[in-house]
Amino acid sequence: MNDFAQSPSLILLPAVDVAGGKAVRLTQGEAGTETSYGDPVDAAGEFVDAGAQWIHLVDLDAAFGRGSNTAILRKVIKQYRGVSIELSGGIRDDASLDAALEAGATRINLGTAALENPEWSADVISRYGEAIAVGLDVRGTTLAARGWTKEGGDIWDVLERLEEAGCSRYVVTDVTKDGTLRGPNLDLLREITSRTPKPVIASGGVATLDDIAALRQLVPLGVEGAIVGKALYAGKFTLAEALDVAGD
C-alpha cells in the first residue's frame, strides 16, 4: 500500500453532461437513455466543493446536432473560475472553437471534427497546442462520430494521423462501457499508450474505487487522468473518496 501511495497521482475529471438545460447521464452514449440529475451549475458546484481541480463539461445537444446549451456552459465556466474546464460537444469550426475559448474553457476536446475534417483539426492543433485534446471514442477498433451515431474510421489509422499533426493529448472512451458501470477498458488504454508518448485521459466504465486504483497504476504508462461520471451520480462513491484513491 505504501508503494501505491507513493505512485504518481491520477487526475480526475468529474463529468457534467448537459442536455435540454439539465445535467444528464447517458448509457453507451445513446440519445434517449438520459437520466436527469438537475441543474448543471449545481452539479459542477458539488464537485468543486469536494475538491475537483477539473470539470469535464459536455454539450450533448451540440454533439448530437440538435441544439446547444451555450448559455448554461458559459454560466458554469464563469461560476467556477478557479477550476479548469475541459469542454466537449459540437466544436467543429473556428466560430464554435473561438466561442468556447473566449468563454474561458481551459481545454477543448475535439471529437467529430478531428475525424471528418482532418485538415482543419490539424491546423487547430498547430495553432492552439495544449489547449486542444482529441476525443477517440471507440467501439472495438472503430471510432464513433456525430454523437456516437456514425462510424469514424479505424482508431490506429486516425491515431497515426493525429500524431503526425502533433496532437498534445487524447481522451479515450470505450463507447460500449460508457455509462454502464462495467469497469474501464484497461487493455485498450495500454494499447493506445504503447502507440503514443502523449498523455491519455481515460473515459467510460468507472464504477468502483478499485477501477480508479487500476487506472492510477497506468499513470507511468501515460494515462494522465480519468473522467468519472455515472458512478458519482449513482452514489457508488463520493468524489472526495475518489480523489483520495487517485492521489489527486
Please give a structural write-up.
With 248 residues, the chain is an alpha/beta fold. 38% of the residues lie in helices and 25% in strands. It is built from 12 helices and 12 strands. The protein has helices at residues 2-5, 40-49, 60-63, 70-79, 94-102, 112-116, 118-128, 155-165, 186-195, 209-216, 230-233, 239-246, and strands at residues 11-19, 22-25, 35-36, 54-59, 84-88, 107-110, 132-139, 142-145, 150-154, 170-174, 200-203, 223-228. Strands 1-4-5-6-7-10-11-12 form an 8-stranded parallel β-barrel, surrounded by 8 helices. Helix 2 (40-49) packs parallel to helix 4 (70-79). The radius of gyration is 16 Å and the shape is globular. The protein starts with a helix and ends with a helix.
Report the biggest beta sheet as strand number plus sense, adding barrel if it closes: 8 strands, parallel, barrel
Major β-sheet strand ordering: 1-4-5-6-7-10-11-12
Pattern of helices and strands: HEEEHEHHEHEHHEEEHEHEHEHH
| Helix content class | 25-40%
Structural class: alpha/beta
Write down the overall geometry.
Answer: globular
Mean pLDDT equals 89
Helix tally equals 12
Pathway: Amino-acid biosynthesis; L-histidine biosynthesis; L-histidine from 5-phospho-alpha-D-ribose 1-diphosphate: step 4/9
Protein name: 1-(5-phosphoribosyl)-5-[(5-phosphoribosylamino)methylideneamino] imidazole-4-carboxamide isomerase
Family: Belongs to the HisA/HisF family.
Enzyme class: isomerase
Layout of strands and helices, then pairs:
Elements: H1 2-5, E1 11-19, E2 22-25, E3 35-36, H2 40-49, E4 54-59, H3 60-63, H4 70-79, E5 84-88, H5 94-102, E6 107-110, H6 112-116, H7 118-128, E7 132-139, E8 142-145, E9 150-154, H8 155-165, E10 170-174, H9 186-195, E11 200-203, H10 209-216, E12 223-228, H11 230-233, H12 239-246
Parallel strand pairs: 1-4, 1-12, 4-5, 5-6, 6-7, 7-10, 10-11, 11-12
Antiparallel strand pairs: 1-2, 2-3, 7-8, 8-9
Helix pairs in contact: 2-4, 10-12
Enzyme class: isomerase
Family: Belongs to the HisA/HisF family.
Pathway: Amino-acid biosynthesis; L-histidine biosynthesis; L-histidine from 5-phospho-alpha-D-ribose 1-diphosphate: step 4/9
